[in-house]
Write a structure and sequence with these properties.
about 250 residues, Purple Acid Phosphatase, chain A, domain 2, nine-stranded mixed β-sheet, five-stranded mixed β-sheet
């Protein structure tokens, strides 16, 4: 799996027979959910969409894969999502071919998608790379291939003596037991490499040091998070998650 980072955007390009731009966890409609909990901010969907379009242009992408949680409301679909998502997807389709790996927030997303745009919930192979949201076990044919997932919203927070020196979205490249991913014991085949994408939504993020204590699904239990390589969105390598743990 050959990756190209896009500097200031939480997205990557997987280079193969096609340039596949990968974006995870857009969470369009999050503002209406925040409003229901007393936090009122204007919709950021237009600005978020413009960043997606900038990524498409910078990547020269042949295909855009959205790794789930395109929408935010659970359960159902909010008025904001009904109003905004059809126009958002139309503008994306004007620029690039689209596939969506549905996530746990994406109930009903199929009503906004065209035939052939939605991938199976447990993921699919594209040019030998498996793509899925990350809240389920992967399909049986995916382990053993490189996997690219979202769902975990990783971010890194590095602190010095006076406080937080860096807080930013991060990518994790983690080994995962192939037997665990296949729900089998005793599988001694080489570990599967899993690339965990940061959330594209600017309001979402979980410190990588807190991911161990969160039960975010089977993939989080199968990955060795301490051994995960940590990268900033511009490709800067920070070390393993274990080496970045505060003393």
């Amino acid at each position: 799996m050959h990756l190209r980072f896009l500097d200031r955007w939480p997205a990557v390009v997987v280079e193969g027979s096609r340039r596949v731009l990968v974006i995870a966890d857009l969470h369009f409609g999050i503002e209406s959910d925040l409003a229901a909990h007393g936090v009122h901010i204007p919709s950021q969907s237009r600005a978020r969409l413009e960043r997606v379009k900038d990524c498409i242009g910078a990547a020269g992408a042949d295909l855009l894969v959205l790794l789930g949680d395109v929408k935010h409301q659970v359960p159902g679909t909010s008025r904001q999502e009904f109003r905004e998502i059809p126009h958002i997807l139309h503008e994306i389709r004007e620029m690039v071919d689209l596939r969506v790996a549905p996530g746990n927030h994406d109930g009903g997303i199929d009503r906004f998608l065209r035939e052939g745009e939605i991938l199976p919930v447990r993921g699919a192979l594209i040019d030998g790379v498996g793509y899925l949201h990350g809240h389920t076990y992967p399909a049986p044919d995916l382990p053993g291939h490189p996997l690219v997932i979202g769902h975990h919203h990783p971010m890194v927070a590095l602190r010095d003596e006076v406080g937080c020196a860096l807080r930013a979205g991060a990518l994790l490249l983690a080994p995962a037991g192939t037997g665990c991913l296949r729900q089998k014991n005793g599988d001694d085949s080489p570990a599967t490499r899993v690339l965990v994408m940061p959330a594209f939504n600017e309001l979402s993020g979980i410190d990588i040091q807190q991911l161990r204590g969160k039960n975010l699904g089977p993939l989080s239990r199968c990955m060795d998070l301490d051994a995960a390589e940590v990268y900033l969105t511009d490709g800067t390598y920070l070390g393993t998650a274990g080496s970045l743990r505060p003393e």
